[in-house]
Amino acid sequence: MKILISNDDGVHAEGISVLSLALSEIAEVVTVAPDRNCSGASNSLTLETPLRVQPVEGSGFLAVNGTPTDCVHLALNELVSPEPDLVISGINHGANLGDDVIYSGTVAAATEGRHLGLPAIAISLVGDKHFASAAQVAVQLVKRLQKQPLPADQILNVNVPDLPYAELKGFKITRQGARHRAEEMIRTQDPRGKTIFWLGPPGERQDAGDGTDFAAVDEGFVSITPLRIDLTAYTQMPQLSEWAETLEM
User: Is residue 192 part of a domain?
Assistant: First the structure.
């Protein structure tokens, strides 16, 4: 199996190094990632400036001066031949639970892999200590995929509790939870007295009940949430059709 690895924390992040090393034991690995932290980049592409690729000395990784989506797009179209079998993004430094997937560059890198026709996994550690646990989870998932492949339109969003691997309770298939709206922005001043703003912390949990990714992680389980790109709200289409009938041209 050949695997493309990327992330949003940057090519020098601990998570991607641990993941690449672990997966290289069972597969051929190519690692292409942003040259800096791109957390929160979502599915953005770089359109106004050229992309440059630089090898990272000592690791064999490739650094790109772009977003996570740029990295996967560039890798699959230009850098990796023959095409890999799977795209894995991570290990993210922190959770991607609930609404986080909207903004996550980690999930976006996996999404781009799926958009280009490959099954993809986004994997995040809900903390900052036990990256080896998340890497071992990734290894187990890949081994399972070798025996029973997923459809090419499948994205798995995986969140691993920050625990030693032996203390993880297992795997749960989950749905996305939800957060309340984000906290207010932080207004302050730069050294010259100009007003600046920082994004506030994410909102508190709104839906973290049974079956959610939040609940599974709280209970010590690895959360696996299947995602799809089609955002159509199918259940609302009949009602919206009736509403649209009253519109006038």
Answer: no
- Token pair recorded at residue 243: 């509403």
Provide the residue range defining the domain that includes 10.
2-179+206-244
Structure tokens at 246: 């009253």
Instruction: Tell me the longest C-alpha to C-alpha distance in the chain.
Output: 65
φ, ψ (nearest 5 deg) of residue 143? -60, -40
pTM for this structure? 0.91
Q: Write the CATH number for 34.
A: 3.40.1210.10
Q: Which two tokens stand for residue 178?
A: 């939800």
Which pairs with CB-CB distance under 8 Å and at least 24 residues apart come from 212-216?
212/98, 212/174, 212/175, 212/176, 212/177, 213/97, 213/98, 213/157, 213/159, 213/174, 213/175, 213/176, 213/177, 214/97, 214/98, 214/177, 215/174, 215/177, 216/159, 216/172, 216/174
pLDDT in tens, 193-228: 999 998 767 767 666 778 899 999 999 999 999 998
Q: Is 233 domain-assigned?
A: yes
Per-residue confidence (pLDDT) for residue 215, from 0 to 100: 95
**Backbone φ and ψ of 29, nearest 5°:** -120, 135
- 184, amino acid identity: E
Reported as a single tens digit per residue, the pLDDT across 34-70 is: 999 999 899 899 999 999 999 999 889 999 999 999 9
DSSP reduced 3-state for 188 = strand
**Residue 163: inside a domain:** yes
CA distances from 24 to 8, 135, 233 (A): 20, 11, 40
